[in-house]
Amino acid sequence: MKNKQLLSRVWLSIAVILILIALPFFGGGRVIGIGITMGITMIAVIGLQLTMGYAGQVNMGQSAFMGVGAFAAGFCVSKLGFSAIPALLCAGIAAALFGLVFGAAAVRIRGFYLALTTIAAQYVFIFIMLKLPHSWFGQAEGLRLKAVGLFGLTLNTDVRIYFFVLFVLVVLTIGAYNIVRSKTGLAFVAIRDQENASALLGINVVKYKLLAFLIGAYYAGVAGGLWAYYVRYVQIDQFSLWLSIWYAGMIIVGGTGSILGAIIGTFVISMLQEALTFLGPQLAELVGTGSGQIVFAGMNIILGLAIMICVIYARKGLVGLLPRKLTSE
Fold this sequence. Notes:
This protein has helices at 2-26, 29-54, 62-78, 84-103, 112-131, 134-137, 158-181, 183-193, 195-200, 205-231, 241-254, 259-287, 291-313, 324-327; strands at residues 143-144, 149-150, 153-154, 233-234. The protein is mainly alpha-helical. The protein has 2 domains: 28-239, no CATH class; 241-329, no CATH class. A two-stranded antiparallel ribbon has the order 1-4. The chain has a two-stranded antiparallel sheet with strand order 2-3. The radius of gyration is 20 Å and the shape is globular. 41% of the residues are buried.
């Protein structure tokens, strides 16, 4: 039975990867752009899933960690002349160190108070970026990047960036699956379910709480670095608190405690966002207001409704509606 389940997941994974590889050859520029943005978002949300869904540590600062990674990658590329992979590693490390600072709060507090502490990461991130020298990160003006190099190639087209994002997404997704199946992943789940009992069983709660924030922030930093490569302009307004809230919503909709749930939640919410962006001008004409107002308000309404529906009718998220043989991790 287990072999059949494994075979089913392997074939499904191969089919999905082949579809994603073929996407740039059949989709237009808009489709490729959506694919790049969605892939970057999935990396950040998978990292948040490891912190929140598996370790049970509330984190509302994932966007700030992503911003740290974006600025770190931009600095390495524009100021130090790094190529894509070394700069991306630096982005992940910088975000992980920043996340570790706020993860230290998780050692003493939890729940609502921990959420407030991680929200502070957004404002600390903005404060630091505005106070550091202008020659480093551009302060309020932001940081512009040149097209980054990768093994003799230049990531100066959306197609090349798409395949690079897809490669990083696959590697980090496999890494996330390996983490949750390891001793570290089991410790995360134990702390999430019964923190006091975990300590009595000899699990180093402090160590694994910090590790959960470090890993989650690392994923966010890598996502931020990829975002910097894609837009080639990094500015603090791109990494708002609302973005962190959306990431948390994607986990709730997709299913907490599941890597596949993070992927499904990101895909579904992202497609709803794109649909509303497309329909925004038509809705604005019917209502008689600006399309920007319609899109912003509509997106918040959609996220709220999606969370409410999943909480009431699908407590395990959308992943809980799939056959068990495809979702067991």
